[in-house]
Amino acid sequence: MIGRGLPLLLMALWALMALAAQLLPLDPNHIHLDAILASPAQGGGLGFDDLGRPLLDRLLMGARTSFLVALGVILLSTLTGTWLGALSGYLGGRFDALMVRIIDVFLAFPGILLAIALAGILGPGIENVVIALSLVGWVGFARLARAQVLSLKQRDHVLAAESLGIRRSRILLRHLIPLTLAPLIVEATFGVASIVIAEAGLSFLGLGVQPPDASWGAMIRDGTRYLLVAPHMVLVPGVAIFLVVLAVNLLGDQLRDRLDVRSLGREVLACPWVPSWPISPPPGSRMPNGAACSNPPSGG
Amino acid sequence: MVSALWQRFWSATLSIGGVAVLVFFLIHLIPGDPVDVMLGESASQADREALRDSLGLNQPVMVQLGDYLAGLAQGDLGRSLHSQRPVTDLLAERLPATAELAGVALVFTLVLAVPLGVMAAARHRSAWDRGAMIFSLFGVSIPNFWLGPLLILLFSVYLGWFLVSGREAPGSVVLPALTLGMSLAAILSRMVRSSLLEVLHEDFIRTARAKGLNERGVLWRHALPNALLPVITVIGLQLGTLLAGAVITETVFSWPGVGLLTIEAIQSRDYPLVQACVLLIAGSYVLVNMLTDVLYTVIDPRIRVEQS
Asked: What is the pLDDT of residue B76?
């Protein structure tokens, strides 16, 4: 539909911008009094904001913020989520029952609401954004990993490994988790899109990165006050977020087709951060065929 | 049937209870002393003690939790720290605005997504189909805190059709509802399409065609009602997300609903109010999901048979 390489190209650009922000001698907080609200045509570059700061520099710093947050959250939530979910599915028993209860309660929240509440309570700052989003995000991975392991642990190779007396931690790590990776990778890809939107959303609400640090969401918030005179303040960061999220969603679609994850269940389960199109059913709800959602995909 | 309903109701109650406990602990996990946060470090010792007493913070945590849950069961959510008014009154004032916004957004979503999805499925792999899918892709990729300002720019600033923000003018719900409904419309149009494509391969569709029914009749009378069943679940699931999304949309448009109240409460560190807002939105989410499940049982006889 749209060029195959485009998503990767856009994501590479995003990473490059983040790297540039780290390496180049940028001056995102330098105030040019003569260029306040100057548009790209008047001031050059991508224009200037209401304090006379260069938008290009701030855009690059914002790329760094969103990239770091996305990286941090996806690492934290996939590692904890996958490990806890797989362990819960493999061990079963009381630990599993407790985990299912915890996952259910977390899923009873719309993800972005929990993130907003957590960020509001923890206070602003990039670390707190990562903590808040990871606390919301691990659940999706845990549920997915648990469901996968539940259906995989009866397979012959696992029984063989068990009868050979291999330690359970090793079975889990070497013989079960690698088999669950395909859907988790797809989930993580869509998760990145959700995290980028969530980080920008929190910053938009004033709950994320604090001024004078730059975030695309905060840039949009600043711009909404000057829509009439300086629409570029909203357009520049907005286009950046839109392109990154679009690229990640496209990549997720491609991966899902290539890894054939859809065949594992009717719908790919999704991260509960923000609406994204793999749809995440809440606890105890039923799939269109009447089967309970918390059941593992049968015959997977 | 009745026992299935009862089971759903019981599990929803448990979920809401779990949510309440989680929200309670969220507030109590604030690093540092909540009284410091609420009054500032310069407050006098007497003021601190008074606040501590009135909030019951001198009690053991489990007693506080018990009091909180008991209050909750009686519909008492405490008082706002700022206005000193009962939190339930504040919520009741703001709820109609949010309900209006979510309702209009849902209508907009259905009006846009169902025809789009049907069109895409009926003309599978055509330019229409591709166009609908590109719309869907763009719709989920555009965050509502950017879509909102864009719509304001186009319709309020350049065209002058609507007010920029607030809820005073009669048409002022249009832009917030468009903003809020966009991602749901995008998801839903894709769902309608895939669900319809699946149904169109069923035997009863072939039968309908074989008996000479025209394609329109096949599509609207036979295929669509069956294809919409899973879509209803999605609407239910996403309605809760819609309520949560209202937090951002209401902030963009200064729409005086529960979402904006949540942000105001967070900014002024009005913890009982934050607690209540979060609980209300999460509670509605659970409730809507339960109702969806029940509705589903009512409209799809196959599930009823399985359960009995």
From this structure: 84
Q: Are B141 and A249 in contact (CB under 8 A)?
A: yes
Task: Tell me if B293 and A285 make a contact (CB, 8 A cut-off).
Answer: yes
Inter-chain touch B263–A193, beta carbons under 8 Å: no
pLDDT digit string (tens) for B92-144? 999 999 999 999 999 999 999 999 999 999 888 899 999 999 999 999 999 99
Residue B249 near residue B255 (C-beta atoms within 8 A)? yes
Please check whether residue A193 is in contact with residue B141, taking contact to mean a CB–CB distance below 8 angstroms. Answer: yes
Q: How many CA atoms lie within 13 A of A74 on its CB side?
A: 19
Convert the pLDDT of each residue in A163-177 to its tens digit.
999 999 999 999 999
B23 in contact with A, Cβ within 8 Å: yes
Residue A268 has pLDDT above 70, yes or no: no
User: Looking at the complex, does the CB of residue A234 fall below 8 Å from at least one CB of chain B?
Assistant: yes
DSSP A292: B
Nearest partner of A252 among A295, A195, A299, A198, judged by Cα: A195
Distance of residue B1 Cα from the nearest chain A Cα, in angstroms: 14
Q: What is the DSSP letter of A263?
A: G
Instruction: Closest CB to A201: pick one of B136, B145, B191.
Output: B145
Question: Alpha-carbon distance A136 to A268, whole Å?
Answer: 18
A 106-145 residues inside an 8 A Cβ radius of B: 106, 108-114, 116-118, 120-123
Residues of A in contact with B29 (CB under 8 A): 121
B145: nearest Cα among A152, A109, A232, A216: A216
Q: Tell me whether B258 touches chain A (CB under 8 Å).
A: no
Interface membership of B299 toward A (CB under 8 Å)? no
Two tokens, residue A39: 């548009």
- Residues B14-63: pLDDT tens digits? 888 888 888 888 777 665 566 776 677 777 888 888 877 777 777 888 88
pTM of the shown model: 0.84
